TrEMBL record:
PANTHER family: EXODEOXYRIBONUCLEASE III. Residues 5-255 form the Endonuclease/exonuclease/phosphatase domain. The record marks N155 as: Transition state stabilizer. The keyword Transmembrane helix does not apply. One of its GO terms (molecular function) is metal ion binding. The active site is at Y115, D153 (proton donor/acceptor), H255 (proton acceptor). InterPro entries: AP_endonuc_1, Endo/exonu/phosph_ase_sf, Endo/exonuclease/phosphatase, ExoIII-like. This is Exodeoxyribonuclease III. It comes from Mycolicibacterium wolinskyi. The record marks H255 as: Interaction with DNA substrate. GO terms for biological process: DNA repair. Belongs to the DNA repair enzymes AP/ExoA family. The record marks D225 as: Important for catalytic activity.
Length: 263
């Protein structure tokens, strides 16, 4: 099974404004070898999402989604070429309706699409992010013994190899010592960062670059889109890649799809 994850930075923009006949999310879905695709930041309710993805659904993709409680923000979804046997939201009084977590069972595997808050150092936004981190970690502890993978935009660069300009970001959300330590502790429980395992001791491969300046051209990116797989599933991971656009003008999101094949 091959699984991909992509923050689409607005589903309608990804399939329309930033698309041409051969560019955008819909052509990518036609060409990808992925069996399951996790989407984040759809910024659409369930009806708008299904409408935007109608051509893909007509091609046979199955869709489960969690729309956001605030219009035009958040939103996660999972597309699968296989039947989706069940879907679940994050059980949380605070976060269940936020459209940041969706868990599905498909092809004998539990696949999660997650979108962590960006946060902002020393503000209430960072405290909210930390509460979300704790809530997700508690749920992941219950999934660890299964064939499961938690995919998405984690908004945390774990190590210096995961961010080009790490020296300039040590006091900023996304590279704070506490965030990085939390991710280290999560991995210590048994979850496996399969992209890093398959690409050890290298810078990147980055998956997010700012729209501004020359960040993309200079590969001044962040690796914040992860596949964290349970031990049984991680043992089957054979290949991982970032589907980076060949040029800035060919991008249809500020993220690129991160794809892992589990043999």
């Amino acid at each position: 099974m091959t699984v991909s994850t992509i923050n689409v930075n607005g589903i309608r923009a990804a399939v329309k404004q930033r698309s041409t006949e051969n560019l955008g999310l819909l052509p990518w879905l036609k060409e990808t070898d992925a069996d399951v695709v996790c989407l984040q930041e759809t910024r659409a309710d369930d009806e708008q999402l299904a409408d935007a993805l109608a051509p893909a659904l007509a091609d046979g993709w199955k869709l489960a989604s969690a729309d956001p409680h605030l219009k035009g923000r958040n939103g996660v979804a999972v597309l699968s070429r296989h039947p989706i046997d069940a879907s679940r939201l994050l059980v949380s009084d605070e976060f269940e309706a936020h459209g940041r977590y969706l868990e599905v069972d498909t092809a004998g595997t539990t696949v999660v699409s997650v979108y962590f808050p960006t946060g902002e150092a020393e503000t209430d936004r960072q405290l909210e992010k930390e509460r979300f981190m704790g809530t997700v970690a508690a749920r992941m502890a219950l999934l660890l013994a299964n064939d499961a993978v938690v995919c998405g935009d984690w908004n945390i660069a774990h190590t210096e190899n995961d961010i080009k300009n790490w020296k300039g970001n040590v006091k900023k959300a996304g590279f704070l010592p506490a965030e990085r330590a939390w991710l280290t502790e999560l991995l210590a429980t048994g979850w496996v960062d399969v992209v890093r395992v398959l690409h050890p001791d290298v810078a990147g491969p980055y998956s997010w670059w700012s729209w501004r300046g020359k960040a993309f051209d200079n590969d001044a990116g962040w690796r914040i889109d992860y596949h964290l797989a349970s031990p049984t599933l991680a043992a089957r991971a054979t290949a991982a890649r970032v589907d980076r656009a060949e040029a800035y003008a060919l991008r249809w999101s500020d993220h690129s799809p991160v794809t892992v094949t589990y043999g």
